[in-house]
Structure to design on (180 residues):
């Protein structure tokens, strides 16, 4: 069979090639769908409902709402859950991290006590830090893969022609570094 032809099509008509734009739209639609559907509509596959609620609390603390919606409203917990459902190794790691948080009573404490607990995890340097770092990395990566994180927070404007980089003028940056 030739590439671009449908295996199940009896007339062997060429399948339409997907354009880059169509692929990007389908990827963006996944993020929008994760944002639009909460845990009740999503249908949990990797975690129990109490684990998912704990995950939502964690992602909300890691990237809270500001002038833009945070990770919870961005559907990051659902994205992590979906990835964990597809990868048994990731599922075990995330479940281990959530079990650690749960055994320390994270969900039952006040927001200031939660912040103190997470701060202690980062200072500890042992498995507690490793578990929290995993959730933190997944949250940040997931958040900036959503429309909210990429477009609203980060201000990404893909496929935009720029005469020069707005981030830095290379000559003035190098001159500034030489003066130090």
């Amino acid at each position: 069979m030739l590439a671009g032809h449908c295996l199940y099509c009896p007339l062997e008509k060429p399948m339409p090639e997907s354009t880059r734009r169509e692929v990007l739209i389908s990827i963006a639609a996944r993020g929008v769908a994760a944002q639009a559907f909460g845990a009740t509509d999503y249908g949990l596959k990797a975690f129990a409902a109490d684990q998912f609620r704990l995950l939502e609390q964690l992602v909300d603390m890691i990237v809270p709402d500001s002038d833009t919606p945070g990770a919870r409203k961005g559907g990051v917990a659902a994205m992590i859950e979906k990835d964990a459902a597809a990868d048994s190794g990731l599922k075990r790691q995330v479940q281990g991290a959530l079990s650690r948080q749960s055994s320390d009573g994270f969900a039952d404490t006040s927001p200031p006590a939660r912040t103190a607990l997470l701060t202690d995890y980062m200072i500890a340097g042992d498995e507690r830090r490793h578990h929290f770092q995993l959730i933190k990395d997944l949250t940040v990566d997931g958040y900036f893969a959503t429309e909210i994180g990429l477009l609203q927070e980060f201000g990404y404007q893909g496929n935009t022609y720029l005469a020069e980089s707005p981030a830095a003028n290379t000559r003035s940056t190098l001159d500034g570094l030489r003066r130090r």
